[in-house]
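Let us work through a complete example step by step.
Step 1: write down the sequence.
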Amino acid sequence: MKILVIRFSAMGDVVLCHPVLSEVIQLNPEVKIDFLTRKGLEFIVEGIPNVNSIAVKFKKGLSGFFQLLQLVNELQNEHYDLVIDLHGSLRSRFISILLFVGRKNIFRIDKGRDEKNARIGHLNIDSKPLRHHILRYRDVFVNAGLKLFDQLEETISIRWPKNENVNLEIEKTILENGWNNKKRIGIAPFAKHHWKEWNKPESLIEKILEEDGQTLIFLFGAGTEEKSKMRHWQKKSVERVIIVGDYFSIQQEIYFFSKLDALVTMDSANLHLANLSNIPKIISIWGPTDPGMGFGPVDQKRNIFVQKSAQQLTCRPCSVYGNKKCHRGDHACMVQIEAEEILEHLS
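Step 2: predict the structure and record it as tokens.
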């Protein structure tokens, strides 16, 4: 059976596809999957047997539309048995419908938009978490008649594919730089949307450095603006504040997560990538969004959520995706979280 699976973005949502695709392949060895995604995200499915990535960067305007038609024409030559649409966007709907005009071979995610929007600004102490996106992804494959694990714990236990060569390279870098035998704390302070970023990573770095003279801090980020901020923070201690991108590629960074003792992160792709590693403790900071909306980690054993309660801030969550400006104007959901609280979880 040959299946086309579609999920273009965002990076965190594509990362959440990884354990589900791995699960599908494990239990359905006769299945071959082409995974259609945004260019630059194809690494997320590398190493999963029988999964091939098709990465596309669409142009804007009319050129993009003709590019889309050309893509559909090329995909029709693959003669897929099913289309699994894990995105549910206008573009993914267009592709799937053109591939299977009048046929019932399309299975699409139910994103639960109405129940998510109803939760905005109405979170309370009795609010039960909404259905997680990993479960929503699994629902689509189940509806398509594919086998999946009986217990969700088996899905949660799936990790990034092992690569001994990459692991040896990372171990070599750790030894060469004297990072071994020291406590290693990762901080991933950035997110796609500015409103999901905490405003006190610099304060946390200072307090970790003050606490003892041995702990190393590893900063995760990319792009000119993020690197500029990290360079500024690194000046506090060049020896102990390390920018991960100076030593590893993004693919290597995923393996490096397992070498950390703990990670502090936002509601971001790094949070989901870390959950595919063997890192023992993951502390995530939540402001305008809420893990109960279906995007938080499923694994409750090693994840710690830091957030203001619905009683403390009745406006939370104010956004499903964290892409809306704070209507209060003070970004209280993040500003009110102090570095000492994060430090306590790290100790």
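Step 3: interpret the result. The CA atoms of residues 208 and 347 lie 10 Å apart.
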